[in-house]
Every structure is written in C-alpha cells, then in structure tokens.
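Re: that chain you flagged

S.,

Sorry for the slow reply, it's been a week of failed gels. I finally had a moment to sit down with the sequence you sent. For the record, here it is as I used it:
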Amino acid sequence: MFSEELEKISWDASTEAIYAKTAADVERALGKERLEVDDFMALISPAAVPYLEPMAALSRNYTQQRFGKTISMFIPLYITNSCTNSCIYCGFQHNNPIPRVILTEKEIVDEYEAIKRLGPFENLLLVTGENPAAAGVDYIERALQLARPYFSNLQIEVMPLKAEEYERLTRSGLNGVICFQETYNRANYKTYHPRGMKSKFEWRVNGFDRMGQAGIHKIGMGVLIGLEDWRTDVTMMAHHLRYLQKHYWKTKYSVNFPRMRPSEGHFQPNVVMSDRELAQLTFAFRIFDHDVDISYSTRESASFRNHMATLGVTTMSAESKTEPGGYYTYPQALEQFAVNDNRTAVEVERDLRLLGREPVYKDWDQVFDR
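Prediction finished late last night. Pasting the structure tokens below so you have them in one place:
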C-alpha cells in the first residue's frame, strides 16, 4: 500500500530540497525525456520561474503529441450533500447548518435529462458527500444504473470504498473514480479532517490501491491547493502517481489541482496560489508525465481556462452546478463551493473552437466494457 511508501518520504526534507533547487537543476530537467520526481521538484521550484516560457512550449508540444488538439468535456452532478465528515474547509461538512438533500431516483433521472438538454455531454461525474448509511454503495450503484441509458462514460467522486465495492460498481457501468487526497501532510491531515471516516489518513490514501486492485479503468488524483505548501503536496502526488503506474499499469490516470474557492464553511486558505504558479505546476506535470490527463474545473476563471487549454490541459468541465440537483431539482441552492467560470456549455465549446481546440464529448463507450 502507498501509505507504507509515503512513510519513507520526509515532508520537511522534500520541502527543503524543492527550495534548494537551482537554475542548473531546472535546465537539466528540461533537457530530459524521462523525468524522475526529483526533476519534477526542480520544475515546480522558485528557481523555475524564469523558465516558464520554455516550459509552456514544451508542455504544449507534449500535449499535442499525445492528445492532439482535443479537450475532453465532462459535467459533474451532485446527487447528495449529506455528509458525516467535519472537514473544516467544506461547505457540505456535517456541522454546517444547511438543508441536506438526497435525490430520489426520479429526481436523479430529472437531472440526467436536464443535463442532456444543456449539450451533448456523454461524460458524467457523480458526486456525493460521505454518508455510507444514508447514501452508500447501494445508492451509488442505483444512480449509475439509471445513468447508463443517458451517458457513455460514468465516473464517481464519493467516499473511498473497498476493492470489492469498486469492482461491484464497474458491473453497473462505472468507468472511473476521482478522489482528492486533499493533502499528503500526514502530520496536519487530522487538523483539517477532525471527525468522520475522512479523518482516517491511511484509509483514504490507500483507496487508490483498492481502485487499482478492482481494475478501475481511470483513476483521478488531486490535492486541494490552499491547505499546505502546494509544492510539497504535489511532489507527494507525483510520488503517488509513479507508484500507481508501476503497480497498476493497465489503468489510465488524471490529475487535478483545485484551488480553494469560497464555501459555506468560510474557511480561509493557508496558502494562496497565483495563476502564474498554477500555470507553472500544469507545465511541470505535463513535462513530468506526457500521458497523464490534466483536468481543470469551473473553479478556475474562463479566461485562465481558455489560456491553459492550449498549453497542457486536456479535460474540462462546463456549466457545472455544485449543489445537489442543481440542473433541475434545486437550482442555485446548497452549493459546495462557488463556481468561477459561469459560461454555458455552448459558450465553452465556442471559445475552445475559436482557440483551435476540438471539444470531445464522447471518448469512451459501454461496448468497451464487454
């Protein structure tokens, strides 16, 4: 399990190593075809800031070699905000006095039909809070079954599950799982997640192993930018990615670096990442791994997403609602976080085409499951 590997990697020593990188280290990394994590650390270090233009060019070239000029489009659907965790930064946390919603089967289908009216979305991400008793595996499985007539590619972002539960969901159409570790800083993890199953660091970080063991086709990883030093956190994620690729080599991987946005919890970020720093991180990850899918959500602004669509990003959401049932049943209420890019799906598609990108709504089909 990765938790055992992580124990061998010092957070403090990694931080020190990142900030000790020099221009020579950056140039050495940029001259290599196959990068190690140490090279990645150079590219995200302050020493790499003067090299952003060559990094952007290299990132663009690698992206076009592997992905062409396509951008894969998806849409998230929150089906419940019921949650037993107490994550201090999240609008859905258990202690927030907000109305709790668990969509019924009819309401879920209403949402599917409303999404299909927005555009030709075929990639759906189902999102829940973490409440296994009220909205557990049975509930998620039923939502997947109801989605199959409407969508070709189904992913979930839910509480970490057992390997056999992931395997069970694949039989109901599940193709991918996204899970945010939030932070790899084991020492401070409990501060942000004081109660609930999410407070168990090992259970969460080893969830990716269970996904791999279950044969999940695509695994999405991410850290929440704003909790700890972002450079050290993404370095740990780079170690994690390499570990997973070695042990579960048949699986496809994606990464995401969401910056904290305002929520009902009113938590103030400990670290603020600038657009320039997020661009640096995106370039560094593409140079580090030419094949990994890099995803941007509507947390980011329209102008920034447009700019990065030509330089390294390969997947985007559009017209996202972050409240349960936000497309039809309960619009504009109970949102988990504030959306920054408020364009419609049609507007996002238009802008991408003007940039010479090809929005792709369908890149997977259920027939490949058989």
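What I noticed first: The first strand starts at residue 70 and ends at 80.

Talk soon,
D.
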